[in-house]
């Protein structure tokens, strides 16, 4: 560059010298110099412009190169960051384990799986019986998966059959030094339990234990434990389905946070502590305004035991406490909880004047017994639901006798006209969960009345109307006898044995009086768990007690009662039955390999209650059910039932076999006081009973009567040993072929 400038100046000098050679002699050197600058200004300007232009071009090129390099560096950094974020997966998937007996937990697992997949995350539903925790569970600690455990609590607080091994292994591992306390460190999990609060002392025991054992092995609880309650009375959201929905929403929100990459919460020691506090408080206030009701229900539903819940505590509570203060704090918490429970339970103290069943004082606080899910399930089974806790259903023997094809065993034993019998219940709830329940445990359970209550008049009115509507559907049906159809519209008998525990209904006495007022006989069945209600019961045509087993262990195994003191209640109920003056019946259901070997124990129970009759019936197989392990192998043959009855009758000095209904696999043992002059009088004079009960009511209970006051002679075809085997010869026997057997009926 300097060389170029010198060259330009020399060139300009030579040109200027040639132009001014003439006048050089006349001017001085100074004037000559300035004149040269003036005359050469154009060349000087051009040279300067050229130099500046070259400098500007070089500078711009250098800046452009630096900017391009910086831009490329930023792009490279952004690309590397995106690659790193893409490669870094925070949640690889969700594994949903379920322990289920009736299929509810399995249904919840499939439902949750679909929700997780909708978030774009893989989900797998796993049956606990198909999973080996010893070989596979530790792998979940490094797989970045989230494990969800949906577990139900079964009898006596035990896990369901498919979860037994998993829970056993987990319990042993939590206390086995060979595994160590950090065996499941890194495992992220959440637990939801399915239980029933009516089982006091066993409510959601399994889910609490699973949660505890995982925590003991250093598993990380990502959210608080959820506890669903089948008891609609105490369920925080009205049903176990609603409880699960509330928990599921919270879980999915938590899962979204984990999938994005969870940030560590501020320790409170950073420079921006004040702003962190303000932001946290503002966020809490916004959440509270957004969902003032949902927050409270969610917080109550689950236990505050997870890390994220603890971080949300108010700052003034996060202080260091002395050990001495902990006792005071715990006492105040217990007092507050006790006060809350006493206020809630205070509504349960009022007793019914009719039969002593506990009721809630405030009607507005009670919930309906029939939830939407329960209504749907029972409707599918053919129930005509009445109000909020009652139902009616057409017995298959009613349909049979409308066609003249024979009646039920009550027709054979007691002279009921099956086509004029209405099978109903004022309480769908029951205090047992029997293994042979033909309703597959779709009805609710409970130990006391805590639901909204419909008036007895309304229940009976609707029951008669719905029953008559079902009878009208047979009008014009081929095979239905016109005279039977007309008779069927006029109900004459009522079997309170449809489902549940009728005696739980607080107005049961009023309901029975209404039946008798309509000239309808009453056959009431109870499960021997309410002795005081049996004692306070008004006279019925015939009172049954189900005696499903003869020992404490077998009764617990078969009936699976809710009461802890079920055995004393059972014995006291039998004693209460013996105090009744009207007809009383023990109903024995034989389950092969379960209760057919307890002959001596049965005879002792019969001596305790001194019933008028003993019905012995083989269990009816109602199909496969996840709630029961019964199979066709547990159904005794009719000859096996006959052998059992003969052996039992031989042990009872005052009883003999009276009747048989081979079609129902049922026999009747009767007290010998009903055998007069060598003839059996097990049938009922229903018109005479109505006269007696009317006189009883009009006298205010002073004019009493006994079972022998309304007997009728038993026809020969109904007697044990008759050729007809209990089938009425006036009917036409009909044999079904290639038809699925209808197992419904009383």
Automatic annotation (TrEMBL):
The keyword Iron applies. One of its GO terms (biological process) is wybutosine biosynthetic process. Pathway: tRNA modification; wybutosine-tRNA(Phe) biosynthesis. Transmembrane segments: none annotated. Its cofactor is [4Fe-4S] cluster. Residues 297-313 have a biased composition (Acidic residues). Residues 1-17 form the signal peptide. InterPro entries: Aldolase_TIM, Flavdoxin-like, Flavodoxin/NO_synth, Flavoprotein-like_sf, rSAM, rSAM_sf, tRNA_wybutosine-synth, tRNA_wybutosine-synthase. Keywords: 4Fe-4S, Iron, Iron-sulfur, Lyase, Metal-binding, Nucleotide-binding, S-adenosyl-L-methionine, Signal, tRNA processing. Residues 265-290 have a biased composition (Basic and acidic residues). Residues 265-321 are annotated as: Disordered. CDD domains: Radical_SAM. Its EC number is 4.1.3.44. Residues 94-252 form the Flavodoxin-like domain. Residues 414-658 form the Radical SAM core domain. One of its GO terms (molecular function) is tRNA-4-demethylwyosine synthase activity. It catalyses: N(1)-methylguanosine(37) in tRNA(Phe) + pyruvate + S-adenosyl-L-methionine = 4-demethylwyosine(37) in tRNA(Phe) + 5'-deoxyadenosine + L-methionine + CO2 + H2O. Belongs to the TYW1 family. Probable component of the wybutosine biosynthesis pathway. Wybutosine is a hyper modified guanosine with a tricyclic base found at the 3'-position adjacent to the anticodon of eukaryotic phenylalanine tRNA. Catalyzes the condensation of N-methylguanine with 2 carbon atoms from pyruvate to form the tricyclic 4-demethylwyosine, an intermediate in wybutosine biosynthesis. This is S-adenosyl-L-methionine-dependent tRNA 4-demethylwyosine synthase TYW1. It comes from Pundamilia nyererei.
């Amino acid at each position: 560059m300097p060389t170029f400038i010198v060259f330009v100046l020399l060139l300009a000098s030579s040109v200027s010298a040639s132009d001014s050679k003439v006048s050089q002699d006349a001017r001085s050197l100074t004037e000559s110099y300035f004149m040269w600058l003036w005359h050469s200004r154009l060349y000087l300007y051009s040279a300067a412009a050229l130099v500046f232009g070259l400098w500007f071009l070089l500078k711009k090129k250098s800046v452009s190169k630096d900017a391009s390099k910086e831009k490329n560096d930023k792009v490279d950094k952004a690309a590397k960051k995106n690659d790193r974020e893409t490669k870094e997966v925070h949640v690889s998937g969700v594994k949903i384990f379920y322990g289920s007996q009736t299929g509810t937990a399995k249904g919840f697992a499939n439902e949750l799986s679909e929700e997780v997949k909708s978030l774009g995350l893989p989900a797998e539903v796993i049956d606990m019986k198909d999973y080996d925790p010893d070989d596979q569970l530790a792998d979940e600690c490094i797989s970045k998966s989230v494990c969800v455990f949906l577990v139900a609590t079964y009898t006596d607080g035990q896990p369901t059959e498919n979860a037994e091994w998993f829970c056993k292994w987990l319990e042993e591992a939590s206390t086995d030094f060979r595994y160590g306390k950090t065996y499941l460190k890194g495992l992220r999990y959440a637990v939801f339990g399915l239980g029933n609060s009516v089982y006091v002392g066993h409510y959601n025991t399994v889910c609490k234990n699973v949660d505890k054992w995982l925590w003991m092995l250093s598993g990380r609880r990502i959210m608080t434990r959820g506890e669903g309650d089948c008891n609609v009375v105490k369920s925080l959201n009205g049903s176990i389905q609603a409880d699960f929905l509330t928990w599921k929403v919270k879980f999915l929100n938590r899962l979204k946070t984990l999938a994005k990459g969870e940030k560590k919460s501020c320790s409170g020691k950073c420079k921006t502590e004040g702003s962190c506090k303000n932001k946290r408080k503002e966020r809490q206030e916004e959440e509270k305004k957004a969902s003032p009701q949902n927050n409270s229900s969610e917080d109550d539903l689950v236990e505050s035991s997870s890390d994220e819940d603890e971080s949300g505590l108010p700052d003034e509570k996060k202080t260091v406490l002395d050990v001495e203060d902990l006792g005071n704090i715990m006492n105040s918490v217990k007092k507050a909880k006790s006060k809350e429970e006493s206020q809630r339970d205070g509504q349960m103290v009022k007793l019914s004047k009719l039969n002593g069943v506990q009721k809630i004082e405030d009607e507005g606080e009670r919930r309906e017994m029939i939830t939407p899910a329960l209504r749907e399930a029972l409707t599918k089974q053919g129930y005509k639901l009445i109000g909020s806790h009652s139902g009616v259903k057409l017995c298959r023997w009613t349909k049979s006798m409308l066609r003249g094809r024979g009646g039920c065993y009550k027709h054979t034993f007691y002279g009921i006209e099956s086509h004029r019998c209405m099978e109903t219940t004022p309480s769908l709830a029951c205090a047992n969960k029997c293994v042979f329940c033909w309703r597959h445990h779709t009805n609710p359970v409970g130990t006391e009345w805590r639901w909204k209550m419909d008036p007895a008049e309304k229940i009976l009115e609707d029951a008669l109307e719905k029953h008559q509507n079902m009878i009208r559907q047979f009008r014009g049906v081929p095979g239905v006898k016109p005279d039977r159809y007309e008779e069927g519209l006029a109900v004459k008998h009522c079997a309170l044995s449809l489902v549940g525990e009728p005696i739980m209904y607080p107005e049961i006495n009023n309901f029975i009086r209404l039946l008798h007022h309509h000239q309808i006989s009453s056959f009431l069945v109870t499960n021997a768990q309410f002795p005081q209600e049996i004692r306070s019961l008004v006279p019925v045509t015939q009172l049954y007690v189900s005696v499903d087993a003869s020992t404490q262990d077998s009764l617990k195994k078969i009936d699976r009662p809710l009461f802890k003191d079920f055995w004393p209640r059972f014995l006291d109920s039998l004693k209460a039955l013996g105090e009744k003056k009207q007809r009383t019946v023990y109903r024995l259901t034989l389950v092969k390999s379960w209760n057919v070997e307890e002959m001596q124990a049965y005879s002792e129970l019969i001596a305790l209650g001194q019933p008028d009759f003993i019905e012995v019936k083989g269990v009816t197989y109602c199909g496969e059910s996840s709630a029961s392990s019964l199979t066709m192998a547990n159904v005794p043959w009719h000859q096996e039932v006959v052998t059992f009855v003969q052996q039992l009758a031989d042990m009872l000095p005052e009883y003999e076999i009276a009747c048989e209904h081979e079609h129902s696999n049922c026999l009747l043992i009767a007290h010998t006081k009903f055998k007069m002059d060598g003839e059996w009088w097990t049938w009922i004079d229903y018109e005479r009973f109505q006269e007696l009960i009317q006189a009883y009511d009009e006298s205010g209970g002073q004019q009493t009567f006994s079972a022998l006051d309304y007997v009728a002679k038993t026809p020969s075809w109904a007697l044990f040993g008759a050729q007809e085997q209990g089938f009425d010869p006036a009917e036409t026997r009909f044999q079904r072929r290639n038809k699925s057997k209808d197992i419904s009926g009383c």
